[in-house]
Amino acid sequence: MPLTSELTLASSPRAAADARRWVGDICHRLERADLVECAELGVSELVANAIIHANAPFKVRVRGTASHPRIEVADGSTSPPVPPVPAASDDDLDLLLTFGRGLAMVAQCAIAWGATIENDGKIVWFEPAPQMSDDGSAEWVIDHHDDETTEPTSEAAMQVRLLGVDVPLYTSLHRQYSELRRELRLLSLSHQSDYPLAGDLTAMFSSFERQFPEDYRTQMRAAERDGRPRVDLTFSMVREAAPIFVTMTEMFDVADAFCRAERLLSIARTPRQRELQNWLLGELVHQLDGAQATPWTTHPGDGSRSSSQVG
Questions:
Q1: This model's pTM is above 0.70
Q2: Is residue 60 within a helix (H) or strand (E), and if so which, with residue range?
Q3: Is residue 194 part of a domain?
């Protein structure tokens, strides 16, 4: 059962209760009733911590896999959470007053947990355990999302043009890609032994991203900011990137298959997103081989497009 929704929370005392009910319902839908108690307790603590210490917007969602569902609480603050430390005193009152008690509770409810720090906020997440532990020894993982990439340089760099890119469709595709990318990165960090392919795909995605110069991203961000329906992009790219794009065309199809089989709880690309991505990668491959640019010409719903599509 793919999960297609997230819950936006109000900045109110009701937020934790709303999140608890929503997460408990999803655990039942995933047929993971064994996780309900820890899932509800952990998300309550994370939401309460976010409401007190962070900024709106507040959201809760579930990602990961059916075997390892991951509960995430997102907020608008880039300040990383402070992992709990063992209490220095055995006094019950001191324990209750210890700063970070909520995160200590999350650690007791989790088999893995951590945070992703992004450009516009953070996501604190945990994978609920079947039962609470006494010591809260679950591994803490900190993950800094970094948009900075090292631009490849080569004397063989040549100019590439992407003509008539559908900006809203590209924006939705980029959002889907970012969620998949983060999904694989976290699996590779917290469950490398269970998902060895996640590490390999993460490395491939990193190599893929490095092929795009900052000028490409700047032009796309400007088109999105200005609300333009279409945009022509011109940028330089090295010829050696072409084989990477051929491989990634196949890898994106593999990732879609994993998503549809619910081995990932990310959402597979829509047919339109797949068409646009295949056209884009096909254009890069063909132009780096000396072909002329062919505009994106697909019309909504007709399924037709230029002959440069890969796959």
A1: yes
A2: strand 58-64
A3: yes
How far apart CA 215 and CA 211 sit, in angstroms, is 12
pLDDT tens for each residue of 11-53: 888 899 999 999 999 999 989 999 999 999 999 999 998 998 8
Count the domains in the chain. 2
Domain containing 189: what range? 158-288
Does 261 lie in the same domain as 185? Answer: yes
Per residue, the 3-state secondary structure of 242-289, as one string, reads HHHHHHHHHHHHHHHHHHHCCCCCCCCCCHHHHHHHHHHHHHHHHHHC
Q: Does residue 303 lie in a domain region?
A: no
CATH at 55: 3.30.565.10
Residue 296 in any domain: the answer is no
Q: How far apart are CA 290 and CA 239, in angstroms?
A: 10
Q: Which residue shows structure tokens 């992004």?
A: 118
Please check whether residue 178 is in contact with residue 151, taking contact to mean a CB–CB distance below 8 angstroms: no
Rounded-to-integer distance, Cα 279 and Cα 272, Å = 11
The 10s digit of each residue's pLDDT in 1-16 is 455 578 999 988 889 9
Q: Which residues of the chain have pLDDT under 50?
A: 1, 87-100, 148, 299-311
Establish if 310 belongs to a structural domain: no
